[in-house]
Every structure is written in C-alpha cells, then in structure tokens.
Amino acid sequence: MKKFTLFFALLLSLLVATPVVSADFQKGMDAAKEGDYVAAFKEWQPLAEKGDAVSQYYLGLLYANGDGVIQDYETSLKWHGLAAEQGHTDAQYNLGNLYENGRGVIQDEKSAIKWYRLAAEQGDARAQYSLGIMYDIGKSIVRDVKTAAKWYRLAAEQGNTRAQYNLAVMYTNGEGVTQDYNLAIKWYELAAGQEDARAQYNLGMLYDYGEGVTQDDKAAIKWYTLAAEHGVSQAQHNLGVMYVNGEGVEKDYNTAVKWYKLAAEQGDVRSQNSLGVMYANGLGVSQDYKSSAKWYQLAAEQGYAQAQSNLGFLYAKGDGVAQDDKKAFKWFKQAAQQGIAFAQYNLATMYDEGKAVTQDDKTAAKWYMLAAEQGNSDAQYNLGIIYEKGKGVVQDILIAHMWFNISSSQGDERARSNRDLVGKMMTPIQVVETQKRARECVAKNYKNC
C-alpha cells in the first residue's frame, strides 16, 4: 500500500495556477506562506462554509496535516469531499488517497478508484499513476494490465517518475504492452534521470546481461553506481562482483569490499557471503577468519546455501571458530539439502567416516552420488572407491573404473592412478566399454550414469 502523504508545502507550488477568489483568500495564503496556519484557517473557513471549493480544499489540507488545527482526518475528508464534488482535481486525488488508506473513513478502495478516476480524467498525473496501480494489481477491480499501462503512460508523459518506472517494467516484461526493450530503456532513462534508483538499477541489469541492448560492462557500472549510491543493495552487490572480476573497471578488491559491506549491512545475503569469502582469502582486507565466520553466519541464518556450506567448512577446520564437527555437520546438511555440491561431498565424508553422525555407508554413497552428478571431482573419485570396495553399494569395478576415469579427466591424480589399477583387473573389452560409459556420462552432465 502506498504511504499516505498530503504535503501542504508541496501543494503551495500549485498556487500559480490557483485562482484568487477574494482578498480574504489571499490573506489566508499569505499567512500560510509565513507559517501562520491559524491565521490562514480564520481567513479560509468562512469562504469554505460559503462553498468556495479552493478554500474547502485548503481547509482539508490543514486538517490532514494538523496545521493550525488539531489533526483530524474525518474533518479533512469532509472538506476534501465538498471540494471534490465541485470538481477540484487536487481534492479528488487526495480524497482517493484518504479512501485508499482508510484515513478518516473506513478503507474503501472502490471509492478511491472513483475519485482517482475523476482526477485522472482531468489530467492529474498522481491520480493517473494511482489508478494504474489499482488496475495493475487488481485492487477492488478486475486486474487489467492494458488499462494499467494506459494510465501509467499518461502519467509518465507528464513526468511522473514512478509511472515512468512502472511503464518501463511493463515494456521489459511485455505485460500489458508488446515487449519492447527500446521503449523500456527510454522510460527507465527518464525515471533514472529523476533519481529513481530502481530504474538506475534495472538499466544496470539490462546492460550487464545484454538484454535488449548490446552488452556493455561500463554502462552497467555507471548505472549500478548511481543506484548503489542511493542505497540499492542489489546494485551494491553487483558492483562488488564487477570490481572483483574486473568487468567494466580495473579489478579492485578494496572497492569490491566497500560495496559488499554496504550491501551486507543492509542484510543482502549474497554480499554477506561474498564478504565472508573476501575475509577468508584476504582479498581487499587482511585475512580474518573470525570476520569471515561472522558474515557467513549472518547469511547462513537467512538460509543462504553457499554461506551455510562455507560456514560448515570453517567449523570443520576450526578457522575463526572453535573446531566443531556437530556444527559443521549441521551447516553442511542444510546446504547439501539445497543442492550445494561441495556441502554434499563434505556431508558424504562425514557419514563415510562417522564424524558427528553414526557411520552410514549407504547415506554416504547417496550424498557422494548427488555431488558427483554436479561434477564434483572429489565425490566422483570417492564413488570410484566405494564401488571398488562395495561400501554402501553393490561392488562393481566397472562402475568404479568409470568414475575414476571421469574424475581423472578433471585432473585428479589419485583417480588416474586408481583407474589404471582397476583397469588391470578388467578385460580389454571391459575397459573399452567403461570408457564409452564414461564419455556418455560426461555428455549427460553426469546424470543417470
């Protein structure tokens, strides 16, 4: 729900277009400009009671903001309603806002739509945007993204930043309009030029991934930086990645750490994990396993699988934390269940060796297989071992040879040696057959081998 806002000072900027209905009204306006809202109220109240729509509207503002009077949404609603009924556009918009947010009245989105529509049809960009929102998400009206796009466009063409952003998103996704990256970029750039950080971030993403534009790391850096400086954590994280990899900028670990830290402090789990990696490896900071553990822990507790795996490894090794196999097992298991191959391999070894858990060859074999199917060469090597010895699986030296061969192809010298030793126990025809199976396994990305 949009935050309810009625800013008197903001609306004073509209006075240039406000007709002066009487000297008394102008006295009230002069008093308001000086911050003397009590005097303004005294001038406007009689005019409002005589039916002057402009005075009714400004009385509504005074009651909404509590300027010169006790803040009173019900009375604000009354005066806005009287002005709105006479066709006062700003009053119609504010009345819609009061109904939408339930200020001074029971929340009534249908009434909000009615008043937004009346103001929107008179060209009020705020009302056009708000009406677009109602259609976009289907608030008390049948969702209609085409109609939402229509109202967003009308507001966007008047410079409404939020409408420009929403219209750009619709062109990006092809929702309510035909997908058109050129138009998406047009509206994003207009919104971004008005300091809309979401638009700046999305422009960065489009250039980063080359969606609808030629991939351009330098342009991505430009837009990410603008968004990051506005505090967008996703942009801060992406900047960190680009500085680590030297994409669009010179590789700079110090700057990467700066951006990761800003995002991490906002709770961005990817940056918390990345910051943990930087501390663990001494990249852009002095190596500090305690700080590494701190950041991994924050991300792990939010369910971020890679951080859970990394934290498990610190506990297994006792780096930055007291060595603790039980905690290592806990974090490896959580990460393994989310599909992290390194964690699956380490969990398998704990079952294999009976560390912090009852020794269980079958469960070890299960986790080795899951890791091996993701290309983990250590797991592939260990699968070769367990098939060679029949640990938790039916002994089969042909399958053992296949996994040793696959692991060896990734550079594991232990696997190369074992492959050759097992090969001596096989016939030449069996060796050729298992080599074929290994090739087929790799072609299938190690699945169903």
Q: How are the secondary structure elements laid out?
A:
Blueprint: H1 8-12, H2 23-33, H3 37-49, H4 53-65, H5 73-85, H6 89-101, H7 109-121, H8 125-137, H9 145-156, H10 161-173, H11 181-193, H12 197-209, H13 217-229, H14 233-245, H15 253-264, H16 269-281, H17 289-300, H18 305-317, H19 325-337, H20 341-353, H21 361-372, H22 377-389, H23 397-409, H24 413-423, H25 428-443
Helix pairs in contact: 2-3, 3-4, 4-5, 5-6, 6-7, 7-8, 8-9, 9-10, 10-11, 11-12, 12-13, 13-14, 14-15, 15-16, 16-17, 17-18, 18-19, 19-20, 20-21, 21-22, 22-23, 23-24, 23-25
Please, could you describe this protein's structure?
By secondary structure, the protein is mostly helical. Helices cover 69% and strands 0% of the residues. It is built from 25 helices and no strands. Helix 15 packs across helix 16 and helix 18 runs antiparallel to helix 19. The N terminus is likely disordered.
Brief summary:
With 449 residues, this protein is an all-alpha fold. It has 25 helices and no strands.
Short key terms for the protein model shown above:
mainly alpha
Query: Quick one: overall form?
Result: elongated
Q: Tell me the β content.
A: under 5%
User: What count of helical segments does DSSP give?
Assistant: 25
Number of E-state strands: 0
Biggest sheet overview: none
> pLDDT below 50 for ≥5 consecutive residues: which ranges?
1-20
Radius of gyration: 32 Å
Mean pLDDT, rounded to whole units?
Answer: 94
Structural class: mainly alpha
**How far from one another are the termini?**
52 Å
- N-to-C SSE string, H for helix and E for strand: HHHHHHHHHHHHHHHHHHHHHHHHH
Helix content: 55-70%
